[in-house]
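Pipeline run #58 for the internal structure catalog. This entry was flagged by the ingest filter as a single-chain record with no existing model, so it goes straight to prediction. Upstream metadata was stripped on purpose; only the residue string is passed forward. Reviewer on rotation: M.T. Logging verbosity set to normal.
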Amino acid sequence: MLEEANLSVGAVAKRCGIKVSTLHFYEEKGLIKSLRNQGNQRRYKRDVIRRISVIKAAQKMGVSLQEIEQVFAKLPNKRTPDKDDWARLSKAWQAQLNERIKYMERLRDSLTGCIGCGCLSMKNCPIYNPEDVLANDGVGAVILDRKA
């Protein structure tokens, strides 16, 4: 039995805790889809709630809408992610989140010292970066961008 598209824009927005304009934005980006009823009003199938939940969870982890769109596009027939899909997606996104956490910890631990920007204005910069030798490592705050 095919599921009917009978959820209104307002009902989906309320259930997902987002604005109607966000629904329209997601639809414009191809992340969700709606059908039109005889009165030309948008109607959604119930699985759109799961799609939006996946989008919101991914965004909370720092995953971009572009990355989410790419993942959704790889699903067979652009279907809504199921339990197995979510397990795969969340594992990959968890690895990305762990890398960001490591970076943020390095950033936190380096905030009071030289960051390798090349300004040489801090007392300890000449110790870490005499004559701006770190310029050879790249641009910007190269110490903050180092992998642990």
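catalog note: The first helix runs from residue 9 to 16.
catalog note: The CA atoms of residues 46 and 95 lie 30 Å apart.
status: ready for reviewer M.T.
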